[in-house]
Specification:
By secondary structure, this protein is mainly alpha-helical. The protein has a single domain, classed as Arp2/3 complex 21 kDa subunit ARPC3 (Orthogonal Bundle). The protein is built from eight helices and no strands. The chain has helices at about 1-5, 10-40, 45-60, 70-85, 90-110, 115-140, 140-155, 160-200. α3 (about 45-60) crosses α5 (about 90-110) and α3 (about 45-60) packs antiparallel against α6. The chain is globular, with a radius of gyration of 18 Å.
C-alpha cells in the first residue's frame, strides 16, 4: 500500500496537466456538487461519483505517471474542502477514496478499458456504501428504518405492493454497478480522444 501511495517526480507537463484536470474536477465538485446538495435531489452522491469516474479515467490517459490519480484526488479534495459551501470533510474523504480505488486497480492490473470499467464499478460500490455508512455514523442506524417507513408510506399512497418496493430497493446496487461500468468505459473512450488531440498539437 505504501508503494501505491508513492508519486513519481513530476515534469512540468505532468504538473500542468494534473492542475488542469484537478481544476476541472474541483469546479465540478464546487458548482454541480453544491447545486445538487442544495436541491436535495435523490442520488446526488451517485451523480458526483459518476463525474469522478469519468474525470479519473479520462485523466489517466494523459497522466501516465505513477500516483497520478492519488495526486489528482488530493488536489480536487483540497479544492472542494476550502472552496465548497461550508467546511465539510465528507466530500474530501469521498474524493480521495475514489481516486485511491482507481489508482490501486490501474496500478496493479494495468490501464485498459476493462480496468476502467472495474474502477468505475468499484467507485460506485464505494459511493453507495460511503453514503450508508456516513448516515449511520452521523444519524444513527435507525435512519434506515426511517427511510424504509417513508418509502412504504409513499408507495402505499400510489398503491404499490411491498414486494415491489423491496425489489426496487434491492435493484439499486445493481444500478450503481451498471452506471459505474458505463462511466468507466465512456471515460476510457473520452481519454483516448483527448490523448489523440494532444498528440496532434
Amino acid at each position: 500500500m505504501i508503494k501505491l501511495l508513492k508519486i513519481e517526480k513530476l515534469s512540468e507537463g505532468n504538473l500542468v496537466n494534473t492542475s488542469v484536470f484537478g481544476a476541472i474536477w474541483g469546479l465540478a465538485e464546487v458548482s454541480l456538487g453544491s447545486f445538487l446538495h442544495a436541491s436535495k435531489i435523490p442520488f446526488r452522491g451517485a451523480i458526483m461519483s459518476l463525474v469522478a469516474v469519468l474525470i479519473l479515467i479520462s485523466a489517466r490517459s494523459v497522466l501516465k505517471y505513477k500516483g497520478s490519480l492519488i495526486l489528482l484526488g488530493v488536489v480536487t479534495a483540497t479544492f472542494r474542502l476550502f472552496l465548497g459551501v461550508g467546511f465539510n470533510i465528507t466530500p474530501f474523504i469521498a474524493i480521495f477514496m475514489e481516486a485511491l480505488i482507481a489508482e490501486i486497480i490501474i496500478n496493479r492490473i494495468g490501464f485498459n478499458r476493462w480496468t476502467s470499467v472495474l474502477s468505475g464499478i468499484l467507485i460506485m460500490v464505494y459511493s453507495l456504501s460511503h453514503g450508508l455508512i456516513m448516515q449511520a455514523l452521523f444519524l444513527g442506524a435507525d435512519i434506515y428504518k426511517v427511510y424504509y417507513e417513508m418509502i412504504l408510506k409513499v408507495t402505499n399512497m400510489i398503491s404499490l405492493p411491498e414486494n415491489v418496493v423491496l425489489a426496487i430497493i434491492f435493484s439499486i446496487p445493481f444500478l450503481y454497478i451498471f452506471m459505474g461500468a458505463i462511466a468507466g468505459s465512456f471515460g476510457w473512450s473520452v481519454g483516448k480522444q483527448i490523448q489523440l488531440l494532444m498528440e496532434k498539437e
